[in-house]
Design a protein that fits this description.
7 strands; seven-stranded mixed β-sheet; homotetramer; alpha+beta
């Protein structure tokens, strides 16, 4: 394991490995996507896997990265190209301590259709609030980019689109969610995907009656108190069926 | 196990644990949702898991709760916040002996689109009858609630929406089904979800030709006689692939 | 095993057990549905499981039934209520030697929407031909039946709707496919479901360009020569993941 | 193993077996479909399984075939009827070294609806470029063919429809993708299917904002550098759950 993580609480390390496995188990990430936590003792750093498929991550694959994108340790392994998603959001949002980036399947259509805004269809997705903003990379990278958030500048533009929200969609790419703790960020990544699938269905049936802003706020608060119920299930299920 | 369950038939305890596992195996519940049975010897109580993910429930997690919502035993574990769904339905419907509450995926769109009423598309779902009523929590809790049925008052409002039906949808939340026995309630929870998926598809193809009321009544009666065929399969399948 | 099956080729018995397991493995049947083969030495009888979930069927559960619906052996176990589906089709179609009845999910919508006819979208489904007929049980059983094909009269009406086709849809119920051999009937049951899913998607995209009648006939013929490739895969996959 | 493969790098043989297993694991092929690699030492030959289900392929099932379609070795096993798909594309496109042909489910609707063109919805599918061409076999084989690419003439017509693209759809049949290496071809087959599913959803939500040609080119280039991340995951996952 990265020596820069020597003093990190083992429970956080374990949760971060579990988060990688859970997100794969639930189909939020496949070979791509990543999850990070802010370093608990140094808010200018975050912890994330080296560049690899989340389903295969172990504690030895975790590394510390500075918010600006530089790996902390000498001889660090290859980091994710898009680590700037994490660093710039941690920079812009001091209260955020966890970030999940994914290409989950049902979210993609909502990123490319202007008429459709991701909104909460049930109390499980109250964290989506009034509707998810969409990051258009063309505004910063032009019309012929490789779509990747591969620089601090692009990461900052993404963080600006995120604003005070809990989730930001990324046009033709996926989404990024944030949390006040790691389990909350994982919960949000899972239920953003679930919500997208159900909202798509609802839009085909007629005119959806979304949560009010008040309902969204209150149900999100109530769910925060229950999130370990889901986490414990997902941890057990992903361990039992996970890759070894 | 809760001492208040000491005299309950072990076969019912086993069925209730199996019901939790089956509903998870078939995707009706995930980390959330719950299933209960009325106490066979005391109709003023029901049996349900403590607050936890259904897939992990064992006999030791079951507890007795009074219809009003108070756990029977001193030192009882934490009960589900929404136990009032169960208690108030048992209160309003003396013949009901089992209740399943879930957020199953295909039902949600039908709860938030006023133009769409859940109706039976095949003989497997005759129990839906003329169409499922929808519970609007705003009428009781106002427009900024956390959406949870967290009080006797809200439970009673839900029971009123259910009326004499076998299923009630809950706007932006999920559904609740009832049964004259536990296996029937599980069957109904499973096929309500199946029906919603198929009805959504049918509505996209054109104008569905639903069961008549007579067909719904008669096919539901016929299926009641066959429900153990499904139960035995589901029990075996959920045991083989279940979490341990 | 039923003594009336004592002289049946063990390879057919094995195939019939495998057919039950395969149809469950591929999601064509769940707790309900059934598959039969005509008795090779007595065309007035067919072989089918006793009334139980297909996934759990073993050779000991198979029984011989007369085309009229009467179990051959004394002390025979309980037969399926809808055995008349099989008997009357074998009666009306002497060349048919295998029948599958199922409620597979994607077929149901096509049974209840008059504007939508199941037609072959690819060469894998050429056996559907010019389009699948739909059996309306109301014409025989009236508007308040339990929807089940529970008599010779209803079986004969279904066989009449089937006519010379390879598949007949059943309104609000499911479908029945026939084959000139058991593996062909299983293949058709699997790909009818696949075709329904893909046709539904195509209809949402625009106007499908279906196979011509000539293409349907020729591709069905070509696929018949390849069906063991699928069978061998399905057998292995269903054995590896099947219920024990 | 075919003696004509005696001098082939064992790593390529292993990758080709893995490719068969991976494509089954991810649902791109079922009992049908095939993947090949050009012979590294003799560009007039390619390596492919004998006629069987991809999920069951081992190194012993691989065989060498001349681009014209003739098996290289005497006593060669039965080759795929549609080996001309591979041979004629290798003939027309000297830079191509791998080909995958499949009937993956979400692609089929795009092959039969003229109004719908498969286009890249996200950076994972940049290889689709400006949109996938569609091969209409009727133009060569007439209106009553069995739909199979069973001759050099039909293979050449398919290669002509493919032109300089990375993927060609086949009306009422499936698709064929090519790669500059085997892993790239597998990646493309997987993400073509993913893209079709997401594009179908997007079209139901409104008007999709597809990748620009520049974005498609650049994102495809970027992904080529990451493809082993997916391959390593898929290999592990398919081995763990694969058929033995």
């Amino acid at each position: 394991m990265d020596r820069a993580l020597a003093n990190v609480n083992p429970a956080l390390i374990e949760d971060l490995v579990d988060a990688n496995r859970i997100l794969y188990h639930l189909g939020v990430v496949d070979g791509f996507g990543h999850v990070s936590a802010r370093h608990p003792a140094d808010s200018s750093r975050f912890i994330i896997s080296r560049s690899m498929a989340p389903a295969l991550v172990t504690a030895d694959d975790l590394m510390a990265i500075e918010l600006g994108g530089r790996p902390v340790s000498d001889n660090a392994p290859t980091p994710y190209l898009e680590r700037f998603i994490h660093g710039e959001i941690y920079h812009a949002r001091p209260e955020v301590v966890a970030v999940v980036h994914s290409h989950s399947a049902s979210i993609i259509p909502f990123t490319i259709v202007r008429e459709a805004t991701l909104k909460p269809v049930s109390h499980m997705s109250g964290f989506i609030g009034e509707g998810a903003p969409v990051f258009e990379i063309r505004e910063t990278a032009g019309t012929s980019s490789d779509m990747l958030v591969r620089s601090p500048e692009l990461g900052a533009a993404l963080a600006k689109s995120l604003g005070p929200h809990n989730i930001v969609l990324m046009r033709g790419h996926g989404s990024t969610v944030v949390g006040l703790n790691l389990r909350q960020a994982v919960y949000r990544a899972v239920y953003a995907e679930v919500n997208a699938r159900q909202q798509g269905e609802a839009l085909r049936l007629g005119t959806p009656n979304y949560l009010t802003v008040g309902e969204a706020v209150e149900s999100a608060k109530a769910n925060d108190g229950q999130q370990d119920r889901a986490w414990n299930l997902w941890k057990r299920a992903s361990q039992q069926s996970g890759l070894s």
